[in-house]
Give the backbone structure.
Amino acid sequence: QVQLVESGGGLVQAGGSLRLSCAASRRIFSSNAMGWFRQAPGKQRELVAISTSGGSTVYADSVKGRFTISRDNAKNTVYLQMNSLKPEDTGVYYCMVSIERTYWGQGTQVTVSS
């Protein structure tokens, strides 16, 4: 079992920044994909950014150039730096890690006011 604990969400004005963190309860290797998804009210969960098992990063088109995913394997942690936030970025952000199966965090709320 792997527990993921997210932090860093909150309320911010449009144009502002937030940094999300997600810490895993066990050792994470570079071969384990880690990433972030989000779910807006009334919508399906969607990919935001992922650091793949092959070492590459993939971003949703809507966040390219504004969000940056990074990871610190020594701390078993993945981060999401979010800049130039827009109201449409509002939602619950979920961290995930793939270790034989996919594990999810409990989610952290991000609200961007216009």
Observations:
- The chain has no helices and eleven strands.
- The mean pLDDT is 96.
